[in-house]
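Sample pair:
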Amino acid sequence: MDYFEKTYHPPGTAPGTLAEPSNSDFCELAIHLIDFNSEEYLEKKLCQVDDCEPYLDDKSVTWLHIQGPVLPDTIRKLGKLFQLHPLAMEDIINTGQRPKIEEYDDLLFTVLSMLGSENESTKAHQVSLCLGRNYVVSFHNGNKDPFDTLRTRLRKKSGRVRQQKADYLFYCILDLVIDQGYPLLENLGETIEGIEEEILNLDYQQSTLGKVHAIRRELLLLRRNLWPHREVINRLLRSENELVSNNTQIYIRDCYDHVIQILDLIENYRETAANLIDVYLSSANHRLSEIMRVLTMIATIFIPLTFVVGLYGMNFNHPESPWAMPELRWYYGYPAVLGIMLIIVFTMLVYFRRKNWI
């Protein structure tokens, strides 16, 4: 996972100051409007944010999604149109905020962290939600729109979301953002299992330890981005805000359960990844012990053989000395010594085998 950049102002800047985002050149701004009720459905792409004003009435639910980095002029128009608080506007344009929830007069503002895979790495993008009485405004600063599955549900007239108000749509977006953690954790779990099998089968490489550390770092960043969601939903459940009905509160409790499950999985995988390092080191020590045992046995076998050849290598031969080595003049001395050496090797191997050393 890459650290996503957090835009911030120099110290001493007045609160609510809007600055142009540094990543505004990477993707174009897209404005997606959906206006619906139980009978009617309208979906269109807008050129300007002002074009959504005719749809803001009490007879339907309006969902305005802004995809890409938002410029100060655009956020000012949205702020004027939806009566956004200056601090909320600042948090929208300065991405990388910690997930949180803020209550204003007729607005519920939420910042979420949405995880996704990009170029074989995990990337976190900020999702900002503004819930009003009959509208939801969402912001996502990534290059890819993540809400196509929710739009597919909205297109079906028989779907539950078409029968509910804006707070249920707000819940659906919240649930979709949080559930993005499941496929990421599933992939991480498969990766951890694969590394564990490599280590236990002694089929690992020197790069395996680096993979384990990379997984631990990714899990740490996952926890950093997902843990505040628990506080956000918990505060949303305890709030008595009129914008969220009691019927929607039941579904938000289910969303809270999802957060707890994801956090439990992260903690379990973190512990497993930490244990993998211990298993790796134990396996490396075991492999080293096996190598040292083989080398020790080889050295032990050659110790008596070295003694024998060293003994008969001292060819002091004096015809009148009683201490001369008589075997030096044996006719079959050389094959006899080789036979003795083979017998010594065989005897030591049998002894090692009975001791379960080999």
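The two ends are 46 Å apart (CA to CA).
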